[in-house]
Design goal:
Layout: E1 2-5, E2 10-14, E3 18-24, E4 30-37, H1 41-46, E5 82-85, E6 95-102, E7 106-113, E8 118-127, E9 130-139, E10 144-149, E11 152-156, E12 163-168, E13 176-181, E14 185-191, E15 203-207, E16 218-223, E17 229-235, E18 241-247, E19 254-256, E20 260-263, E21 267-272, H2 275-291, E22 302-304, H3 306-309, H4 315-328, E23 332-335, H5 365-373, E24 377-382, E25 386-387, H6 392-396, E26 416-417, H7 423-439, E27 444-447, H8 460-480, E28 485-488, E29 506-508, H9 515-525, E30 534-538, H10 552-559, E31 563-566, H11 575-597, E32 599-604, E33 610-616, E34 622-629, E35 651-654, E36 660-662, H12 663-668, E37 681-689
Parallel strand pairs: 22-23, 22-31, 23-24, 24-27, 27-28, 28-29, 29-30, 30-31
Antiparallel strand pairs: 1-2, 2-3, 3-4, 5-10, 6-7, 7-8, 8-9, 9-20, 9-21, 10-19, 11-18, 12-13, 12-15, 14-17, 15-16, 16-21, 17-18, 25-26, 32-33, 33-34, 34-37, 35-36, 35-37
Helix pairs in contact: 4-5, 7-8, 9-10, 10-11
This protein binds alpha-D-galactopyranose.
Alpha-D-galactopyranose (GLA) binds at residues 306, 336-337, 381, 448, 450, 489, 491-492, 508, 511.
Length: 690
């Protein structure tokens, strides 16, 4: 709910357990008086009587770093989330407050420059304790250059210390958690690649350095954008800290013409207590309630043929895999790369989205029919933003790719990026996929994007336009084919963010399917994103990427922590492996509602001898625990694994052994799962409240 105190020019935005208190000062600057535990309007108003601590030297503006809209100009020397250049070269913005629009959960504060006809709207929308913020800029004057327009600048209260949590990574090693004391100055996380990126992900969390998995206050924000982005964590010498995030990157600017409007993506902010675990659960809950298009659905068990066949795709080969997958209990069969055009290797065919006539002389129909006959849904891989120079599309439209005159066209994986900001390319993209979906009974698309931009230049039309067209095409395809579900992939986890998740149903977490590496990747992924979207495949052993040999059960149990999928060469699995896999798929189906819709507790992080993750049904009636032992040291007894969020007065029955445990004992002493003696031992324990 949103409370307004007009006398004091105060707004109190409150979720069930947090409040955000904003005050417009005499200079019309929106000062954040509080972001933290929930306050009543009266408690919030009392903050006005508390003067900010004055710095020792009067030359410091004691209020710098306490405004949620920071424009260049005046005595602002820190990071400004809003930076423009007017036609006459003026760079200072002098904003005056012009009014508000308010609804139950929405607030818009409007400002205008005191001279130039540029209006700025700050939009706030409450979803529980999550505050979604974005800006709208409207220009009625001569063209204005927008240098930076961050969706939000989050102001943290004065803490005893500041620790920044984020994820870093690379291809095959995405989302590695990184926690570090926030340095003084500006720490910038960014993608300049045109896509969200493997290297960094657009979210950050800050705590005072003492929070743990189960305790402590955490301030977090996440940007809903799938192109290049920038998140600046600023720590001033006066100990004021802000997190400011938006689309675009240095030195890309936008030209805002006369009569034009710029709407930024949403940046969401969240204050939580209860440690990183509670922060993650609140973000998961937010995505399940307010971001994902079909969050209530259970995602099917998927099979993907990529690791089994590579580019060697044939009708018979795919049917053999499909039959084997169906016997195992798979519900969605996905044909990956290699089914179209001249795509028999990675140097040809991208752009030609019709079935390879030699591989599928009668089109995809016979394969799709067989997959459906086997009782599975049918999915298909596409990478529609790309083109191989060796393709009919490129030969017909060499000018459709992102390029600059007099510059080389840098290829990456032998491919170039289509310039989706050109209307004719966007139209072609929609028409091509619309036709593919209309002509074939496709239930699922794996939408890939395997290379970042090059030679794009500082042309704002292109950087923003690409993502806007991508979103627009996804929205139109979903509307035209409402039964189709979409997976976002970008060489693995290169395009995972709250923007793409609003339009897709799951993501491909990483090309690295090594179960040991996956524990770290999934741990980092879960900091912000829910298991409900985290695609996880069981592949062959030794793993094709890392060469590591890991038992089948361990591989399955790791993949069960998200959307269980299978990606192995099933025709080479032994009958014993196929039979055991079918049992494990059945196990997953029993716990699937807990994993996909329940609440996740990271019991023991990966890295140590044992790691474990628990999922709890929303009504608390069931819980599933996945336990992994990487390697056992001789003479070392496994510790108990205390569970979370159980009813201490209840008893819980183990569905496999029938053993009954007291909730109080599980909470205090934990489970002692029986793990096989060797390395890579794992277990799934499913408990039901009696
Ligand atoms: C990317 C994806 C893989 C696979 C290949 C196909 O690397 O991440 O899962 O689809 O492309 O070329």
């Amino acid at each position: 709910m949103i409370h307004h105190d007009s006398e004091h020019r105060l707004w109190v935005l409150s979720g069930p357990s947090s409040s955000y208190v904003l005050h417009l000062d005499d200079a019309d600057r929106p000062r954040v008086l509080h972001w933290g535990p929930r306050f009543t309007p009266e408690q919030a108003a009392s903050l006005l009587l508390r003067l900010p601590p004055l710095g020792f030297r009067p030359v410091e503006d004691p209020l710098e770093g306490s405004f949620d809209l920071v424009a260049t100009g005046g005595l602002c020397y820190g990071n400004a989330g809003l930076q423009v250049r007017f036609a006459d070269g003026t760079r200072d913005l002098e904003l005056v407050y012009t009014g508000q629009r308010r609804a139950d959960r929405e607030l818009v504060l409007t400002y205008a420059d005191r001279h130039y006809p540029l209006a700025v709207e700050c939009h706030y929308r409450l979803h529980g304790d999550v505050i979604e913020r974005h800006l709208v800029l409207r220009n009625e004057g001569e063209p204005v250059t927008v240098v930076r327009a961050d969706s939000a600048t989050w102001v943290l209260p004065r803490l005893n210390g500041y620790r920044l949590s984020s994820v870093r990574g690379q291809w095959g090693a995405e989302t590695r958690v990184h926690r570090t004391e926030l340095p003084y100055g500006e720490t910038v996380m960014t993608s300049r690649r045109g896509v969200t990126s493997h290297q960094a992900n657009p979210w950050a969390m800050v705590d005072d350095g003492t929070a743990g998995e189960e305790h402590g206050a955490v301030y977090s924000c996440a940007l809903a954008w799938s192109g290049s982005w920038r998140l600046t964590a600023q720590r001033l010498p006066t100990e004021r800290v802000t997190l400011s995030a938006g689309f675009g990157h240095d030195p890309v600017t936008w030209e805002l013409g006369t009569g034009e409007e710029l709407v930024t993506p949403v940046c969401a902010g969240l204050y939580t207590e209860g440690g990183f675990g509670a922060a993650s659960r609140a973000w998961h809950d937010h995505q399940l309630r307010h971001v994902l298009p079909h969050a209530g659905e259970l995602r099917p068990v998927l099979y993907n043929s990529w690791e089994a066949t590579g580019f060697d795709v044939s009708l018979d080969g795919q049917i053999r895999l499909a039959e084997s997958a169906a016997r195992m209990g798979v519900e969605l069969f996905v044909v990956d790369d290699g089914w179209f055009g001249a795509r028999t290797h990675d140097a040809a065919g991208l752009g030609d989205w019709y079935p390879n006539p030699r591989r599928f002389p009668d089109g995809l129909g016979p394969l799709i029919d067989r997959v459906h006959e086997l009782g599975m849904l049918f999915g298909l891989w596409v990478e529609p933003e790309m083109v191989n120079p060796d393709s009919d599309l490129y030969r017909a439209h060499p000018d459709w790719v992102i390029h600059r005159p007099h510059r080389r066209r840098t290829e990456h994986r032998n491919q170039l990026v289509l310039d989706l900001s050109r209307p004719e390319v966007g139209d072609w993209l929609f028409r091509t996929l619309d036709e593919l979906l209309a002509k074939n009974a496709i239930d699922f698309l794996k939408w890939d994007m395997n290379r970042p931009f090059t030679e794009a230049g500082p042309d704002e039309r292109l950087w923003l336009g690409h993502v806007q067209t991508l979103y627009d095409v996804l929205d139109r395809l979903r509307a035209a084919h409402p039964h189709v579900r979409i997976e976002s992939c970008s060489s693995g986890g290169g395009r995972v963010d709250l923007g793409i998740l609003r339009r897709t149903d799951q993501v491909w977490t990483s090309d690295n399917t090594d179960a040991l590496d996956r524990l770290d990747i999934q741990h980092g992924f879960s900091q912000l994103y829910p298991a409900r979207v985290m695609g996880a495949w069981v592949t062959d052993s030794p793993n094709p990427y890392t060469g590591r040999e890991i038992p089948l059960d361990f591989r399955f149990h790791v993949a069960m922590a998200g959307l269980l999928s299978i990606g192995g060469a099933l025709t080479e699995w032994s009958q014993a492996e196929l039979d055991r896999a079918a049992e494990l798929v059945a196990d997953y189906k029993r716990i699937r509602p807990l994993v996909q819709h329940g609440r996740q507790h990271r019991l023991l992080p990966p890295g140590g001898e044992l790691s474990a993750v628990q999922y709890l049904a929303s009504d608390g009636a069931e819980t599933a625990v996945l336990v992994f032992r990487r390697a056992r040291r001789f003479g070392h007894a496994d510790p108990g694994i205390p569970l979370r969020a159980l009813d201490p007065r209840a008893r819980y029955r183990d569905t496999a052994t029938g053993e009954v445990h007291h909730g109080a004992v599980l909470l205090a002493h934990g489970l002692f799962p029986e793990l096989a003696p060797g390395d890579y031992a794992s277990a799934l324990i499913h408990l039901i409240r009696e």
